[in-house]
Design goal:
By secondary structure, this protein is mainly α. The protein is built from two helices and no strands. Helix 1 packs antiparallel against helix 2.
Length: about 100
Amino acid sequence: MVCECQWGLSCLFLGGFIILAAGVFSFFPFVLGVLKYDWYVALCYLWLTLGVTMFGLGFLYELFCCAPKQRFGNEKRGLASAREATAGEDDIASAPTPYIMITA
C-alpha cells in the first residue's frame, strides 16, 4: 500500500482541534454574552458536533484496529532475534577488525 494514511489519528487530532476551536468561539456568546445571534450559536453547536463526531470516529477506528496491516504488518513485536556469528577459525567468533585512523 503506497498511501499509508493514518485515518484514526488524523480524525482524533483534527476532531480535538475543532472541539477546542468551537470552545473558543462559544466562549463569547455563552460566557461574555456578546454575539448572541441565533445563527452564531447554531454554528458553534455545529462545529462542536463535527469535532465530537470526528474525534469519536477516530477513537473507534483506532480502538477496533480498522486500519489494514501496512508496512510493518509482519513485524513480531516483543520477540528478540539475533544472528549468531559463526565466521572465524574453528567456528569461534572473532572480534571485528579495529579501525586504524590514518594521519594526514
